[in-house]
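G., the chain you wanted modeled:
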Amino acid sequence: MRIERNHRLHRPFRERSSPYVENWGGRFFSEFITLPAGRYAARIHVCQSEKASGEIITLIVRDAQSGQEIGRDEFSATKDNPRRSDESMISFDVVEHGVLEISGEVSANCETTLLRRLTIVDATSSKICRKDFFEPAVKPFDLTKVERLHLGTTGVCNASCIHCPTNKPGMRMPSGRMDIKMFERLIDDLRAGGFTGEICFALFAEPLDDPHLIERLRYIRQTLDCRISLSTNCALFDPAKHAEMITLLDHISVHVESADPVVYNKMMRPLKAAKVFPKIQALLDLADEKQRDHISLTAPLHKENINSFFSLSDLFDRGRNSDYLNPGTLSSGCRPEGLFRDIALAPTAESCRPNDLQANVFIDWNGDVVPCCRDFSKSMVFGNLANQTLAAVFGGERRSALAESFRRGEWASKKACENCRVDQSPAVRMLIEGLKGYASPQHLSFPPAAFRLGMDVVREGDHSIVARSGGSDGCVIYGPYSELPRGEFHASFELSLKSAPEADAPFTQDAAYIVVEATDGDGTKVMESKVLRLGELDLGTDITFRQETAGHVQFRIFKHGPIDIVFGGVLVTQTDLI
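Predicted structure as tokens:
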């Protein structure tokens, strides 16, 4: 038997005794698993916090019904020894069929400590065999099974998006364009090897910077029977130079962070919306002229742009629906620093498998073959096509060694893999689905999916949020960190009570109440606050507030007393535009 849990989104719980400061401690993951009676072993991979400074990480296996602890491991989180986070193994006995809870607790940095992977296997003895957790032997590389070949024919990017490592201090790599002969040799090798996947022009840089792009696209069309796609920010698009690319490509993805020029200029600097948006429209118009419907607008979603994403369909309106909008997910770019933690929506730790090295291949402009598009530092180069054949690179020792480390579950042994964090795609898509309902600048509807949860708060099947009466008092629901323009606003909170104190309860009707408030994005400036007594919910849950300057807004709900609150979202109306 083998059970695996990975790429999981967990809600951290603050330890009640932990001070409510930035690096508070608590439970950072909890998994419930049903197992029959028997002896088992668990291997738990932890992604240490980027701020790790010796805090204690404790991994515990408990009987979920009795709460009895049946296994534990403990170690210190230190930047000097990240490999220790891949070595936690616990053996335990299950007396009778039942539910177990496997959880992780940390004395500090709870919000930034993540579960990378959990594996449970049958154990034949009390001594744990590490090999029992390994995956099957890696098969030889097969070019016919490559799904996508990501190709960077240029190393020059005209943008420096603030969440991307490109063009940042310490990340400026030598840049140039791929030699034509090397490129043609690569395409010929792909044909000889039976490649039938997709070639994607996108890796670390801007494909339209390549002066030989059209020539390369023509050669692929003459040589291979495969799909070709390209990702661009469109700032360098020139109809005179790039018109033929419309018919040579099967798909074009345009990276546009936001329809809001303020957000766009901030996120994609030094690009300017005033200059780039007309070029995007020109590309769309040219595609219409050539009767091609193969362009999508895409962006990695995050706190800065999620609430304006669907406005892109209004900005570039060509009678289309939102199907041509392609929401993506944010990554850390394999860096411990950067903006990822500040703007991520649903951070998880990545743990690639050996098959990932088979399905996707990445080749940079100078011939470097790398395993991943997130490792901007190129710390794990397999080989180079300038002095090696394609077969030699893919069959070489360096690629085989990395595949073997993935098979053994040794992600922390590689600096890039240790620092690889990504937003969980299903969670982000759930958020964006919940935001499809609003599109006008006067009326903004923020559904429960756009909000975060405090302690002892749960999401129900109908997507509402419930703060339970037995839970902690204080801030129970907060978000969505959306950007609003300067102006006057009316916010209506959809709130109801699932239960209230009994008449003989120690809390009086006055002692149990709810507070709703509107603050700036950091929560440091309260623009308006209102106390709602139990008997006053029918009188209105609305507040009005004024936003002096454009910026992010946070709505917060506080619970006091033994009451169950049901939250269905917030409707915001900009009253000075009506």
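Residues 318-322, 437-441, 502-509 have pLDDT under 50 and may be disordered.

Shout if anything looks off.
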